[in-house]
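To: structure desk
From: M.T.
Subject: fold request, one chain
Message: Could you run this one when you get a chance? Sequence is below, nothing fancy, just the single chain.
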Amino acid sequence: MVGVPLGRDYDQQECALARALEVVGERWTLLVLRDCFFGVRRFADLRAHLDVPRAVLSDRLATLVDAGILERRPYAPGREEYVLTDTGLDLWPALFTLARWGDQHRVGPAHGRRRFRHADCPDGGADLAAGAVCPACGALPGPASLETRPLDPDDGEGGRPPREDAVSRALRRPHRLLTPLP
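Reply: Done. Structure tokens follow.
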């Protein structure tokens, strides 16, 4: 049976979720956004870390730029990077919650790959749990106030050896979200 490509829109749906899925519901899009929150900004780094085909990544980035979620900015002559806009930053709670759901229901909380800490917490901070509320101060911190770190920096994913691309190596150390990775 030959697969039929699905359209990107939900013409018959008058629903905010349907409208959101038109922008962020395609395969790879949420992973692109995840990496942008982690500080990945350059096309080559996104491609290397995600193992996504060039054409697919180009399409996803163009869609996110057109939707006002990402913005292209020059960083060197003839080179551009992708930065989250305020609209894109508003997606953080949804991505965080979906990742926590994945930890709980798909890989198990003991095997979740990343932890997030409220780095700007006046009460010293603590790892965030479901709902993204800081258990120490009760605040709902934005992504710029969060530090991420791997659960076990020496462990590969699911017993596999750790990835060796530049982004994976950088994310083995604690890292503030939205801070550009080297």
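Reply (cont.): Residues 92-176 form one domain. Let me know if you need anything else for the meeting.
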